[in-house]
């Protein structure tokens, strides 16, 4: 029999995420900064042809996957699509078998499924921050996302 850990026993991590796309669709990148105590870990990745929304989802998904054990997470995003999707809309999508209220297929459903599964490992509070407003964590994540696009375009 395993005991469920108390929330207070879980390590605390703050994650700042952002997605970027040049053209929509077009070359895209995602960036994230994981912060725990004095430790910081930047993450980034890219896709040759994608959308900004997919990159926002990838930033959150890849950040959570990076955590080796369950954590208390404060996740900051400038994407209402991401924040509202995972905290509000997903419940209806699950009830309707990944269909919207108007019965259309949910866009990026495979990423939403993966993200939803990943959220079960952690205690996450989702925060929204206005993009490009000088918030240091968001600015760093945006920089990482754009570096990823630059690396893609440079052939790195």
UniProtKB/TrEMBL annotation:
Tell me the residue numbers annotated for binding Mg(2+) 2.
18, 142
Give the matching CDD domains: RNase_HI_prokaryote_like
Record domain RNase H type-1: where? 9-150
Q: What Pfam families does its record include?
A: RNase_H
Enzyme group, top EC level? hydrolase
Q: What is its EC number?
A: 3.1.26.4
Listed cofactors? Mg(2+)
Keywords assigned by UniProt?
Cytoplasm, Endonuclease, Hydrolase, Magnesium, Metal-binding, Nuclease
Give me the residues that bind Mg(2+) 1, please: 18, 56, 78
Q: Name one GO molecular function term.
A: magnesium ion binding
GO process annotations (BP): DNA replication, removal of RNA primer
UniProt GO cellular component terms? cytoplasm
How are cofactors bound according to the entry's free-text note?
Binds 1 Mg(2+) ion per subunit. May bind a second metal ion at a regulatory site, or after substrate binding.
Entry annotated with the keyword Hydrolase: yes
Q: Where in the cell is it found?
A: Cytoplasm
Listed under catalytic activity are: Endonucleolytic cleavage to 5'-phosphomonoester
Q: What does this protein do?
A: Endonuclease that specifically degrades the RNA of RNA-DNA hybrids.
| Subunit-level organization | Monomer.
| Descriptive protein name | Ribonuclease H
The organism of origin for this protein: Halomonas cerina
